[in-house]
Amino acid sequence: MIFDLDGTLWDSVEPVVSAWNSVLQTKGHPLTIEKMKSLMGKTLSEIAAVLLPDLSDTQAMSVMEECCRATDTLLSQQGGQLYDGMEETLSALQKHYALYLVSNCSTGYLDAFFQAHGLQKYFSDSETNGRTGRSKAENIRLVMKRNHLNKAVYVGDTESDRIAAQTAGLPFIYAAYGFGKPKSFQAVIHSPQELPVVVQTLLDENNTPVDSP
Q1: Of 113, 80, 115, the residue nearest 3 (C-alpha)
Q2: Is residue 21 domain-shared with residue 115, that is, in the same domain?
Q3: Are 1 and 153 in contact (CB under 8 A)?
Q4: Do 31 and 51 meet the contact criterion of CB atoms below 8 Å apart?
Q5: Considering the entire predicted model, what is its pTM?
Q6: 3-state class of 63 per DSSP?
Q7: Number of domains in the chain
């Protein structure tokens, strides 16, 4: 099982907006919570193009990197909001499936997530756009190749997650409690606690075993 991060495992919007505004307000580009929610799941370069269209690519990415440093520091100290029952769900799933994490975030952001909440022990491997510079679909394939996975499912919350899963050839489980509204999905959950039953049902329907730990 491969997971997205934002809108799937946690909600970090409020501290991220606070950290980013410590930088963006000095540049004349304040950020709202609603705007940040609409950007969740995008790569840093995509976010830079939306928030800082008046700057050159180099200038915009420099500002984004400053935002990321502020975010990583804040999140590593105070964390975000894990969705209810998330750790218990991961613990239950780990008994039957190998768990992985693929996100479009920076490496420092993922490290901050793990440091703040201590969930790294549940994941066999992870990959980020910040580390590889690759698309989410490419990183999903990379994790599968690196860990010799023949089958998997992807759990996420946005249309870009659905596209990544489809491009990588995986069934997509939509986390409806997250930020987005994908056009389609193979299964849906409304809380993390629903995931063990839903993933087993999906696999039974598709006769698709996933790699176990």
Answers
A1: 113
A2: no
A3: yes
A4: yes
A5: 0.90
A6: helix
A7: 2
